[in-house]
Amino acid sequence: MHSHPEAADTLIVGAQLYDGTGAPPVERDVAIRDGRIAAIGNLSNWLAEEVIEANGRALAPGFIDVHTHDDTHVIRSPQMLPKITQGVTTVIVGNCGISASPVSLKGDPPDPMNLLGERDAFQYPTFAAYVEAVNAARPAVNVGALIGHTALRSNQMDRLDRAATAAEIDGMRAQLEEALSNGALGLSSGLAYGSAFSAPTEEVMALAEPLAAAGALYTTHMRTEFDAILDAMDEAYRVGRHAHVPVVISHLKCAGPSNWGRSVEVLKSLEGARRLQPIGCDCYPYNRSSSTLDVKQVTGDIDITITWSEPHPEMAGKVIREIAAEWGVTQQEAGKRLQPAGAVYHNMSEDDVRRILSHPATMVGSDGLPNDPLPHPRLWGAFPRVLGHYVRDAGLLPLEEAVRKMTSLSARRFGLAQRGEVHIGYHADLVLFDPAKVRDAATFEKPQQAADGIDAVWVNGVLAYRDGAVTGERAGHFVARGAASKGDAHGAF
Ligand SMILES: [Zn+2]
């Protein structure tokens, strides 16, 4: 027991502390006791069961991956290697309109719910059942969850290529309310996908109505990220205004060569809207996207790499242009023959990626796809890539600002109480890393590789990862939506 007033479970000594708020680093010691930050300062008179010498390396709040598709992964692979090795201590699942719960399938999961797994992966007819399964799995990281609009449509509708009826919307709302009452963070949509594209804005607006009373938010993979992106952004703002809730635009990007360079006007639109309502966005630090293969996007103007194909698994790693040539067919025809399939699209400009990533409203989210056999390297590399490639090597933004985009900004936006800052009394989710060495090792050719320079990771005060190896301790759990703290409604993001 801790009878001594100055005794800690763990003492981290001599760190450059990046507290998550964006403040410049200061040299500090940090004490962890009973899963919380017990003290910050010069703690040379403290005792601890374990002392870690930081030797001037960076200590930051554990990173929050606000954009994941780890819904089933946190249960089936609770060690969560792709995330814990990056210093991620909390993942938010249920993005892009697809969530593992509440789901009752009638057959195979519709596209893109198949990104979360096959039919047998969907075992949670209620959100409460999902929460129970997460906690039973004891994942290495904390798990917050959004509820997917497409998942709700799939539960309530016989077909997804039409608008929901009033009765179907009532059914969806009842399921969303069950989830909110059990701590879900909000509603996500994936309006670009065929399974939700037929939903009019009014359907989403009606579904979003219960969010405000719960203090929840709306996130959206917008109806388009191509030429009509400004209209799609307006649609997202409209849902937020109607329901009086904060909006997060998911993986903000200017997709397709005809759209390159438009991040200037896209961010101008975002800034204009932010004067009127709470809005933020997330992005991943790469100029290629990834999802299921959408034949509409096979236009021949960009390269598209196949990552998996049910009928043609031998084509994984090849570009559609080559596959089409090999088969002697058009790229469109090749795309159709490969379905269902996964793809990496070479569809962004580097200038746009940098402009969006460095904008103060942007959070970092990996959008990693853990069930893909050849996943986009963002799954294992997104956070270290920002810290190494973009902060240290390219000088795009200060390290303390990058850390803020991965921690306090994310925790405030998503309502994760007492996380995202190194602050006395907060949960001890922490990462110790070497700013001179941190580097993403995952590449498009070899994507499943742990980053370099992440030295130690604590989740809820428990050391989960150290010197390139997991400790075997898995101290993560489901995290319910917390009470919004003061100043979060506006301005703070
Ligand atoms: Zn998405």
As a percent range, the share of helical residues equals: 25-40%
Global morphology: globular
Radius of gyration: 22 Å
The residue ranges in which pLDDT falls below 50 over 5 or more consecutive positions are 484-493
Largest sheet: 9 strands, mixed
- CATH C-level label of the largest domain: Alpha Beta
Pfam family, one: Amidohydro_3
Domain Amidohydrolase: 50-465
GO molecular function: hydrolase activity, acting on carbon-nitrogen (but not peptide) bonds, in linear amides
Protein name: N-acyl-D-glutamate deacylase/N-acyl-D-amino-acid deacylase
Description:
It holds the Pfam family Amidohydro_3. This is N-acyl-D-glutamate deacylase/N-acyl-D-amino-acid deacylase. GO terms for molecular function: hydrolase activity, acting on carbon-nitrogen (but not peptide) bonds, in linear amides. The chain is an alpha/beta fold. The chain folds into 3 domains: 7-61 and 423-473, Urease, subunit C, domain 1, CATH 2.30.40; 63-287 and 347-414, Metal-dependent hydrolases (TIM Barrel); 289-345, D-aminoacylase. Domain 3 (Dna Ligase, domain 1, 2-Layer Sandwich), CATH 3.30.1490. The chain has 15 helices and 20 strands. The protein has helices spanning 73-76, 81-84, 127-137, 149-156, 166-181, 201-208, 211-214, 229-243, 263-274, 320-327, 331-338, 350-358, 378-393, 399-406, 408-414; strands at residues 7-17, 26-33, 36-41, 47-53, 58-61, 63-65, 88-93, 142-148, 186-190, 217-221, 247-249, 279-283, 289-292, 304-309, 341-345, 362-364, 430-433, 454-459, 462-466, 469-470. The strands form 3 sheets. Strands 1, 2, 3, 4, 5, 17, 18, 19 and 20 form a 9-stranded mixed beta sheet that branches. It has an 8-stranded parallel beta sheet with strand order 6-7-8-9-10-11-12-16, sandwiched between helices. Helix 10 crosses helix 11 (331-338) and helix 13 runs antiparallel to helix 14 (399-406). The longest helix is centred in the middle third of the chain and has 16 residues, at 166-181. The chain is globular and about 70 Å long. The protein starts with 6 loop residues before the first strand and ends in a 23-residue tail after the last strand. Residues 96, 190, 221, 250-251 line the site of zinc ion.
